[in-house]
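User: Could you check the structure of this?
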Amino acid sequence: MSLARIAAAAGRATALPLVLAVSAVDLDATGPDAEAGVHEDRVLPVASASKLLLLAEVARRLDTGELPADRIVDVLPEDRAGGTGLLSRFGRGGWTVEDLCWLTASVSDNTATNALLRLVGPDATAGLAARLGLDHLALHDRVRDERGPGVPPVFATGTARDLAHLVAHAARGTLVSTGASARLLRWMRSNTDHGLVPALVAHDPYAPGFPRPLPGALLVANKTGTDRGVRADAGLLVGTRRLAYAVVAHWDTALGPSTERAAVHAIRDVGRTLAACATDPGRD
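Assistant: Sure, the predicted structure tokens are below.
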């Protein structure tokens, strides 16, 4: 994987009024050429891409038996949030832990996220981040419909490098255990939002056997994030090489919808370069 290719793709956004942070890890390479990035250590709001950290902690607890997958969790009134998801529209109040995880991973369900975060506690996600060396990835609060005085200004912050390294841990089986790693990847594979990094890339979202490579095809598992002035995507591309990646765009919302569209286009452009690296058998 060439740092120049990744940097060139991100560099095309230099003239835009936004920050575009990119990090990629070639899981089948070693040495300094195994990683590439641009602004990868810049701490930015990362919106729902940070839910990967919460899901990783739940996966760890399910693997150790601290939490049974079929434990029923009551959804409380304070858990309910608008935005992405389905639970705020359902009348049923109790869901299993694994139900909540599938909903969080597949449709970024904010109500399910809040119920899980209440269940495990923010200190647990912070502790897991510290053990994994993800020094700047943090969930600051539950998901809220409105943010006013007295609450954190954003749901979560982090760096592209930390998000990519979290995915890399899952792909390598080092997310505490191989079982927890595999579980997180299965949840990521169910994500229905492929509108950012994978949007312009030919890939099979339903092929069986993930994360084993499928000859002649590119496979994707990811988690996206959307908030005011933020678009983020962290995931795994499996082709002839396996790439863990994260791309985060941040801009001033006062600049209007044209900047939002430019951010999405910039992320998709980087996605094409990441896909080209994942499907290139060479080591350029």
